[in-house]
Design a protein that fits this description.
Elements lengths: L12 H23 L19 H12 L3 H8 L3 H12 L4 H22 L4 H18 L1 H5 L10 H11 L4 E6 L5 E5 L9 H18 L7 E6 L5 H4 L3 H14 L4 E7 L5 H8 L5 H4 L2 E4 L40 H6 L19
Parallel strand pairs: 2-3, 3-4, 4-5
Antiparallel strand pairs: 1-2
Helix pairs in contact: 1-4, 2-5, 2-6, 3-5, 4-5, 5-6, 8-9, 9-11
């Protein structure tokens, strides 16, 4: 049984509103697991048109989905953490086989759409990239990685200890949401002291998967905030092969996952990193990168309004991100890994419970 989460009571109205939003998120999460989708399979057996998807895109999606085996469809659907949790509920419910198949196809279409758009609607290229991603997810055992700290699941001691050693550096975690509900992947390079290739990749894949599971935005994307404050190139820069490996994985297998990448307080030595790694960053991703100063280094004239305040409310930001930021708790790894759901950012469990409605 997962221990109950502590609550910090406060009279601050902003905290109460955050609490109410979190309560609603939790309710929606539970209802989605219990009730599933209200949509029905179309008579043609094709996927029903999704909002924001053109007829041409829908035809291309159907073409991609029809090229997948049942095993591949299931794997593509499981890329959504929501579906991976929901499938057991579907199996235990009175849901018919056709309804389950429709649900699987609907979630698989979300992953297909990301690759279709990233490949400028070339179905052949998108399908090739999708299948490569499914193979990567299988080889990396993404489903096991997501649940490696779940006390209800069997423990993989080797994978757990390796990932835990990386997480103990407190260099990568999920905390806070932007104004549109995108979860925030925070990375602090100065805290990294171990650059083992496999465990480093697992750290970032685990954190990115968790951020995607947490995201509440309509587009399902996340933001990455990279805090370069105190970074030393000689002490903290990753070996070239490690950095290239991660960037290649990100580029090949997480199309459309990130909305913005905020590079905060980049030092002069950052240009060396950029020279080495820029060729491995796609043009579309480069356009999402924003270089900013934090509250710590901004001038007195601008400290009251950092650029991040355009994207984050104070209750969802740390003090160095936004002046008056209220996410002040140091990362509690035990709380984050064992007492907080995988689809919940660190600190959400500390918000006071809202009054019963």
């Amino acid at each position: 049984m997962t221990p109950s989460r502590p609550a910090t009571h406060t009279g601050n109205g902003r905290h109460w509103r955050s609490s109410l939003r979190q309560s609603l998120r939790n309710s929606i999460h539970r209802l989605s697991l219990q009730r599933g989708s209200s949509s029905r399979k179309s008579p043609s057996g094709k996927t029903e048109k999704n909002p924001g998807v053109s007829k041409k895109e829908q035809d291309q999606l159907d073409c991609m989905l029809d090229c997948l085996s049942q095993k591949e469809l299931e794997a593509a659907a499981c890329a959504s953490y929501c579906y991976s949790q929901r499938r057991q509920v579907l199996a235990d419910s009175e849901t018919t086989k056709s309804e389950s198949a429709h649900e699987r196809r609907k979630f698989a279409a979300l992953l297909c759409l990301n690759f279709l758009r990233s490949k400028n609607h070339c179905t052949k290229k998108a399908l090739s990239k999708l299948k490569a991603t499914l193979a990567f997810r299988d080889d990396t055992q993404i489903d096991k990685l997501r649940t490696v700290f779940d006390r209800k699941k069997p423990v993989d001691c080797k994978k757990t200890s390796s990932l835990l050693a990386q997480l103990e550096q407190k260099a990568a975690y999920v905390q806070g949401y932007d104004k549109d509900g995108r979860a925030t992947y925070i990375f602090v390079p100065r805290r990294v002291h171990n650059h083992d290739e496999t465990s480093t990749l697992n750290l970032h894949v685990y954190t990115l998967e968790r951020a995607l599971a947490c995201s509440q935005s309509d587009d399902g994307q996340v933001n990455a905030v990279v805090d370069f404050y105190g970074f030393s190139y000689s002490q903290h820069a990753p070996p070239t092969h490690v950095g290239k490996h991660f960037l290649n994985v990100f580029r090949q297998h997480y199309a459309g996952a990130v909305h913005h990448i905020f590079i905060v307080d980049a030092p002069r030595s950052f240009r060396f990193l950029w020279t080495i790694f820029a060729p491995f960053i796609g043009q579309g991703t480069r356009e999402k990168i924003k270089f900013l100063k934090s509250v710590r280094t901004a001038s007195k004239q601008s400290v009251s309004r950092s650029a991040l305040s355009d994207f984050y409310d104070r209750e969802e930001a740390t003090p160095w991100m936004v002046a008056g930021g209220e996410k002040e708790c140091e990362l509690d790894l035990n709380e984050y890994l064992y007492n907080t759901r995988f689809d919940q950012a660190f600190g959400d469990s500390r918000i006071a419970q809202s009054p019963k409605l």
